[in-house]
Amino acid sequence: MPLRATFLATAALAAGALAGCGDTDPVPVDGRTLEVELDEYRIIPENARAAAGRLRIVATNVGRSTHNLKVVRLNEEDREAPATELGGTGTAQPGETATFTFENLKAGEYRMVCTITNHDDLGQYGKLVVEGGKEGR
Q1: DSSP structure string for 83-114
Q2: What pTM value is reported for the model?
Q3: Cβ contacts of 86-93, under 8 Å, gap ≥ 24
Q4: How far apart are the first and last CA of the chain?
């Protein structure tokens, strides 16, 4: 019986840990700087929440391929239309950090993506929720 109890306890802990994976609650940005890591093929944190206004993005490439981080707005009326790029970092080689500063990012929901080849299609995207201020870009 002790072995069975150990197995059940381990299974319960593993299930709890897996339930935390893929958590999509936006991570609050501390201050005016959003720090992210870029990897194959993800952005960490995947979802972030920041205040409207000035926002500095610091993206560190911890992967083996080149990556970037762009902030785009999807066309809500026509999902087939291309997204509007609002700004973002340049290309970061493995181990490099790239930065970009929005001077006045307006409230709204934006998509964070890596625009290199098909990285977005492979899952390297996330959501940036900007709160306060006026809607816009």
Answers
A1: PEEEEE---B-TT-EEEEEEEEEPBEEEEEE-
A2: 0.78
A3: 86/110, 86/137, 88/57, 88/115, 89/57, 89/59, 91/66, 91/67, 91/116, 92/38, 92/59, 92/60, 92/61, 92/66, 92/67, 92/68, 93/61, 93/66
A4: 61
Domains defined along the chain, listed by start? 23-131 (2.60.40.420)
Series of mean pLDDT values for 10-residue runs along the chain (137 residues): 41 38 73 96 97 97 98 87 94 98 96 96 97 66
Query: Are the C-beta atoms of 44 and 69 separated by less than 8 Å?
Result: no
SS3 label, residue 8: helix
d(CA 76, CA 110) in angstroms, rounded, equals 11
- Who contacts 49 (Cβ-Cβ below 8 Å, separation ≥6)? 26, 27, 28, 29, 128, 129, 130, 131
Instruction: Label residues 57-83 b or e (16+ Cβ within 10 Å = b).
Output: bbbbbbbebbbbbbbbbeeeeeeeeeb
Amino acid at 13: L
